[in-house]
Every structure is written in C-alpha cells, then in structure tokens.
Amino acid sequence: MSPPSTFGDEVVDNFREGVVVCDASGVVLGISEPAAALLPGLVVGRTFAGCGVPPLLVGEQTLTDRRVRCRQVSVSIGGMASTVFYVEDVTDAVARSDALLAERGRARFLETASQLLGNPLHEDRAARAAARLAVPRLGDVAVVVLTPRRGRARWWRAVLADDGERHTVDGGLLTAGQLPPAVEEAWQGGEPSEADWLADQLAEVGWLGDRDPAAVSVRVLPLPGRVAPTGALLVVRDRAEPDGHDLELLRGFAGRAGAALDAAVLYHDQAEVADTLQASLAPADPPPVPGVQWGAAYRPAQSSLRIGGDFYGAHAQPDGGALFFLGDVSGKGVDAAVFTGQIRQGIQALRRIESDPARLMSLLNGSVLETSRAHGNGRFATMVLGRAHPAPSGGLSLTLASGGHLPPLVLRADGRVETVELRGMLVGVVPDPRIASLPVQLGQGETCLLFSDGVTEARGGIRGEQFGMTRLVEALRGCHRMPAPALAERVEQVVSDWLGGRNHDDIAAFAIRAVPPGAVSRHLRVVP
C-alpha cells in the first residue's frame, strides 16, 4: 500500500478487513493488501472508474467471483476530508449460511413428507401422495410405480404445470412386459443411472408427455421396504443432473415413501386377513326351513370388530326340521369370537351324528372341555340348543336344551309372554354336566325368543341399572304379531335405547316363529 505519510502501513495491513482510502473526489489515496486482492487493478492515485473497477457499495455485492461486504466511514486525514471503505470477503461465510439454510429446507421437506405420507394407510393413496409431494421440490415429473400384483403394476404420476406452481396427478396399470427395464432394476434394489437411455424408456411408456428426452435428466430409485422394495420412484428434471445434496434428498424421500408404502401394504394385507377372519367368525344367516321364520339381531361389544362372544345359528335337518342355537362364551373381542367359531364348527360336525339337543350338547361339552384344557385358557360357554320340527296339527314342536343359559321366552298368540323354565350347567367346565331338556309347542304365529345376558345385564337408565328380565318381558308385550326379524330388532333397539350410549357386553337375540309352511321367510340381522 502507498498511502499518504499520515496513513501508516502498520495500521491498515493488520485490519481483518481490506481498507481503501479515497479523497473527496474519489481518488484512491491508499489500499491495503487484503483490499488489493479483492479489487485487482485498483491503484493509488486514480479513481475506481479510471481503473475499470466497479465502485464499492455499502452492504454485500459480488466482485469477480467473490462475495464481499462493504462499510463506509467518513474521516479527516491531515485536515483533508476522506472516505474509508472497509471491505470483507464473506464468500465462505455466505456459502456456509446458504448450505445451512438449504440443509434446513431439506430437513423440513423430509419432515413434512414423513407426516403426510404417514397418514394414508392405503397403498394407492400413499403412492399418489408420494408422487404429488415430489413435484416440484424434487423434479418436474415424478412417477411412483408399485411392485406388481397378479402380473400388473399400478403407477401414479405427478406433472408440474406450465405455471410452475400447480401440478396434475394421473395413474394407470401396466403389465410386467410394458414396464421400463429401469423400473425392474429398481425393484431389485439398484439405482439405474445411464442417462442416455433412462429418458428414452420413460418416453416410450408415455411418462414424459411432450418433453424432449434429450432435454431432461432422470433419476430412478428403489422405494425400500422391510424385506424388498415396495416400488420405484422416477424423477424427471427439466435441468441438469442433481448434485450430491439433491441426490441425498432424493434417497431420503424415497426411504420415507418406501416406508409409508410398506406400512400401507402391511395394513392392507392385515385388513384383508382380518376381514376374511371376521367374515368366517360372524354369525351366518339361518337357512330357509318350511314352517319356520328366523329373526336375529346382534350388536358386539366392540362394534369396530363386528364380532364378539355371542353366537347363534341354525342348520336344516334331513327330516325337514331344523337345529338352532344361541350362546355366549367367556371373554370379549377377537379371542371370544375365535372360541365361538370353534363351538359353531363343533355343532356343525356333531349334528351329523346326533340330532337330540341334550345329547348333542353333551358331546359338544366334551369337545369344548378338551380344547380349552389343551390350550390352557379355561374358556367356557352358556347356550340354548334346540330342535324345531313341524307339528302334525300345525305350528312347531320344539325341543330345548340348556347349558347354563338364560331361559327362553315364548310369545303366545293371545299376547302372553311365558318363560321356559330351563336350567343346566355351563358348557366346557365339567366332564359330565347336567343338561336340562324340555319340549315346547308353538302354534302358528307364536314365537320363541333366545337372548344373551348382554340384553338383561345392559346398564342404563338414570341410575345405571340393569335392563333385567322384567323390563324385557314388558317390552315384548303386545309384540306377538311381529314377524321374527322385527321382534329381534325390537329387542336390540329397546336395549340400545336403555344403554344411552354406554359401554355394553355383546348383545344377541334370536327369534324362532311358527308360520305356515308356504309363508315367505326373510332373515334380518341388525349390526349397527
């Protein structure tokens, strides 16, 4: 530096910033070595313009390839008004700040993506959401291709609109032979990177739209799952290849999208299994039997499961009669429903070798006892098992057997409600239980009602009292002309009203009504 005699080198050359001193007319009086490095060509005795150097501006500006920050101070040197410019090279600091902001932006994007992708527990919706989130943050076109099922692969594509802000989403199906080889390579866990043919493959399938394959860059990444990739992510940019940071962002997004798809697939498979099991464990519609009208209502304790610990059913017999039953097993929920399935299967098998209700229940007791002991769960059941046969004089002849269940009710044609005094021991507790059996005659238009303790023990009303047998009998008075389906539905509705939204046990009602042999019989099962 060659400042005036009053401006010492030993002062300015030790500044962190570069220093440029100018007089009132803009002529450079002095320049330190750091400033000279930032402003090549600037010399003492000439102005900035005379040296062909851009003027210094207060704040940040770019000089050649460096980012500088300048501040200006007016001073008096040797009685002469002067201006001192302090120039600092902030290129590296700005780069670090920009990198930090970019990293925070990527982290926020991945956090948002994780939240949005975690919501749709449906494979197609998760794939569609992944394609939509990738545009425009990751590319101008994004395609998510799911691994094939039954020889076909579903794909979803998001495309950035011409305004650069909105995007459209579409989808479709492709057979395995129509898929680009790059997609299949991604399903194997690879990352195809041959840029010269990736775009051509996407163009052949039609995923590039009207874009020129030679003017885009393409990345293909697997969407990782627990065991194998759940799909492939294809990202198209109308610009250069992504740098290292962008590629890491792509991989991070692909990992989150793959996890979301994997969870959606797992949920779908589990839901499919659960639906199949629930369908197999849910009560089946009773078969049509001449002279018999069935009616059933069922409300499980856990309504979301649609199954529970109460069960009912009926089977037509070769002699023209029917075997029917209603019962309640210990416990609630899925475990109880599985146990009811075992009992119904036992009845299904044993009815072929025994039609008498009491003897059949005794055989069933041995089967249940053996199963519960083998599994060590100590489960038991109560039930009423009956046989209905057309009576010679019309109506139905019933034979009822009880295994520790609530006594059935009979609605007579004159409106009376009778209790069938039927008692017995629990099913699945002791090897040789006492099982009561009674005959009951139903005239045409008369109904026998079976119900579970979820009806009588339902707590409601003002003081949370049990519904009880007395209220049930009162609710049935005047209902003797009701068809069996309507009667069962009335029981369920009256109990539900009594509950007033409170928690409850499984509720089941099963009605057997004697009708003329040619009457149309319709079954109604109420499951809210």
List keywords for this structure.
elongated; alpha+beta; 13 helices; six-stranded mixed sheet; five-stranded antiparallel sheet; disordered N terminus; 528 residues
Short description:
This protein has 528 residues and is an alpha+beta fold.
Textual characterization of the structure:
The protein has helices spanning 9-12, 33-38, 48-51, 91-117, 123-134, 181-187, 195-205, 244-281, 333-350, 357-375, 453-456, 468-476, 484-499; strands at 18-23, 28-31, 59-63, 66-77, 80-89, 141-146, 152-160, 167-175, 217-223, 231-237, 292-299, 310-316, 322-329, 381-390, 396-403, 409-411, 417-419, 436-442, 447-451, 459-460, 465-466, 507-514, 525-526. With 528 residues, the protein is of the alpha+beta class. A six-stranded mixed β-sheet has the order 17-16-19-22-11-23. Strands 2-1-5-4-3 form a five-stranded antiparallel β-sheet. Strands 8-7-6-10-9 form a five-stranded antiparallel β-sheet, sandwiched between helices. Strand 6 and strand 7 (152-160) form a beta hairpin. Helix 4 (91-117) packs parallel to helix 8 and helix 5 packs antiparallel against helix 8. 37% of the residues are buried.
Structural class assignment: alpha+beta
User: Shape from CA axes?
Assistant: elongated
* Count of alpha/pi helices: 13
Mean pLDDT: 84
Which regions contain 5 or more consecutive residues with pLDDT less than 50? Answer: 1-8, 523-528
Strand order of the largest sheet: 17-16-19-22-11-23
- CA radius of gyration is 42 Å
Biggest sheet record:
6 strands, mixed
What portion of residues is helical? Answer: 25-40%
The count of DSSP E runs of length 2 or more, i.e. the number of strands, is 23
